[in-house]
Specification:
This protein has 9 helices and 10 strands. With 265 residues, it is an alpha+beta fold. The longest helix has 27 residues. It is globular, with a radius of gyration of 20 Å.
Amino acid sequence: MNDDAKRSANASPDQTADASRRTFVKGAAAVGAFIALEAIGGVTLARGTEPRSKPTTVAEGVIFPDPALCIGCLTCEVICSRVHRELGLSAIPRIRIFDDPAVTVDAEVERAYPGRGSFHQEVCLQCPTAECLYVCPVDAFQVEPRTMARIIQEDVCVSCGRCAEACPFPISDLDEATATNQLTLGQQTRITYDPAVDAFTKCDLCYWRPEGPACVEACPINVRIKQGVLKSDRMCLSAPKSDPATWDQLRAFQTFAGSPAQGKV
């Protein structure tokens, strides 16, 4: 008997009914959302009589990775999963590390961690235009008012997948064969479906944390640079303001061949 069957067998009648009602409600909402979306051409969602407009305010921050400093330790993935799980959100890591032999490892990192390997990090770029937000049929996508992060309200999401399809930044390895954590999550873009919560999820800059994104704070390379153990004027992960210059620089090395993001302004 598989895990789902075991849970069903052990569930009380009330629990089974609650689960069925939740599935029905989400399914009905998804159907209604699709009908509404298609009725207006599949591009905009009417809010009253005015169509939704794309956000004009850039995010207060964006996760800016430096692949040359990454040692593939996966601390960022683990802490991301933990802090979101503690808040009752999806435990899917919002940042992914991939093996990448094309990356030239920083000399200081190679000295401290010889033969460790080479990697690169991939995470949501908090796009200024945020196509993902624009296509959501149920307003599950929001701009968080303090950080201006583009976030997904998982309890509102109807799992239609429009946001993931709209994301112009696919991951570098669609088969996830080079994912350092060796997990296959079915991820195609920077927005990931989590079957455990039946919702899509993405980086939200840990908007509720006064300390900022947990991955930036916990990264051991960052810690050692701050301690002076490693000599570098850069961080493995940082969270600068997502101004046009920063976003253009980030887009330049996070856009892979064939990406819809190529040529975007």
